[in-house]
């Protein structure tokens, strides 16, 4: 890319469901005086079509777009050079012609969710370990059940427990940071080998001071794309398994009955904050019924939304939340921080952060 320090000739269209902070607009103008900014207050997640207030002329001259899952055609936006997504996941763009049939860089919001999702992972795990759902039920009945209190032999704290993180990206690395602070041992799994310190570095966005960008926290690394390589990782004596992989043809259904049986020896607790179809739902219910795993926490399900009559709702030792683990009042500012970094990289002619690989699909 050719450097263009003030981004002269570029037009940024920001599509968000809320107003754009005037201070952020002032910041953009001071950083990139040549950049024209257009904002459309429109919810691309809950609305049909494109924003009605964006004119054909605006689409024709837009070079940078921040949006959710609604995209123009290449003909509508012939000058588009960069798409910044609002989401960490990118599975919904893979079949869109604007991504599939062009070379336009698409960048995710990967890293925005690290703090809230890692808190959710640890929160649900500790809730299960310390029997919090049971005590909440007892509280509603006014029942003082000290038999299952702090001295119960089946209650374990986190010290020296082993967490396996399947998908060691920015979210997984923040989970590792929090788990390490509690005295847990971290095993990491990535699709590509990471044999050297340099290869373990991750160039994704991180909230400053958080995560594990250098990749120093895991005591052991696993890698590969073959089922038997994943199975080796699952057989490594995990107390907690965190599924943090994107949804791709390779990851769809990767955790099914054979994998749950591998976890049975340690009765691993399974947490899914990736995508619902990574786990075979029928096999998960069997694993819970048969006691192959000690429990599970799901922020994503298959199907999603989970129908009211679905039997998964009624399984024991299960926590389900409606895809909200990443919610945070800091989401917007962090998303704009990623946009900021990519605008700076565009102005300097450098590669973007959080770019979606057309080869890997994430």
TrEMBL record:
GO terms for molecular function: NAD binding; oxidoreductase activity. Residues 125-198, 224-325 form the D-isomer specific 2-hydroxyacid dehydrogenase NAD-binding domain. Keywords: NAD, Oxidoreductase. CDD domains: 2-Hacid_dh_5. Pfam families: 2-Hacid_dh_C. This is Uu.00g079390.m01.CDS01. It comes from Anthostomella pinea.
């Amino acid at each position: 890319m050719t450097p263009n320090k003030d981004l002269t000739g570029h037009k940024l269209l920001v599509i968000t469901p809320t107003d754009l902070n005037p201070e952020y607009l002032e910041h953009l103008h001071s950083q990139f005086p040549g950049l024209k900014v257009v904002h459309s207050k429109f919810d691309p997640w809950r609305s049909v079509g494109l924003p009605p207030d964006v004119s054909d002329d605006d689409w024709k001259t837009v070079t940078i777009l921040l949006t959710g899952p609604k995209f123009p055609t290449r003909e509508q936006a012939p000058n588009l050079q960069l798409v910044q997504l609002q989401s960490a996941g990118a599975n919904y763009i893979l079949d869109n012609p604007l991504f599939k049939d062009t070379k336009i860089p698409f960048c995710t919001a990967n890293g925005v969710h690290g703090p809230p999702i890692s808190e959710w992972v640890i929160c649900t795990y500790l809730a299960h370990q310390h029997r919090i759902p049971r005590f909440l039920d007892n509280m509603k009945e006014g029942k003082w059940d000290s038999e299952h209190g702090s001295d119960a032999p089946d209650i374990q704290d986190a010290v020296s427990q082993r967490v396996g993180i399947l998908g060691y990206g920015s979210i997984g690395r923040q989970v590792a940071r929090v788990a390490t602070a509690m005295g847990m041992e971290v095993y990491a799994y990535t699709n590509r080998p990471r044999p050297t310190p340099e290869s373990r570095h991750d160039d994704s966005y991180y909230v400053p001071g958080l995560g594990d960008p250098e990749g120093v926290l895991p005591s052991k690394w696993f890698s590969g794309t073959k089922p038997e390589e994943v199975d080796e990782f699952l057989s490594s004596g995990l107390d907690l398994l965190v599924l943090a992989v994107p949804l791709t043809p390779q990851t769809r259904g990767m955790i099914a009955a054979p994998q749950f049986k591998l976890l049975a020896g340690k009765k691993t607790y399974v947490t899914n904050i990736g995508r619902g179809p990574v786990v075979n739902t029928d096999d998960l219910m069997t694993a819970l019924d048969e006691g192959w795993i000690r429990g599970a926490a799901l922020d994503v399900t298959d199907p999603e939304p989970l129908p009211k009559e679905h039997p998964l709702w009624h399984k024991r030792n299960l926590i389900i939340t409606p895809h909200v683990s990443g919610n945070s009042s800091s989401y917007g500012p962090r998303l704009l921080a990623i946009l900021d970094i990519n605008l700076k990289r565009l102005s300097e002619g450098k590669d973007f952060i959080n770019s979606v690989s057309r080869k890997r699909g994430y």
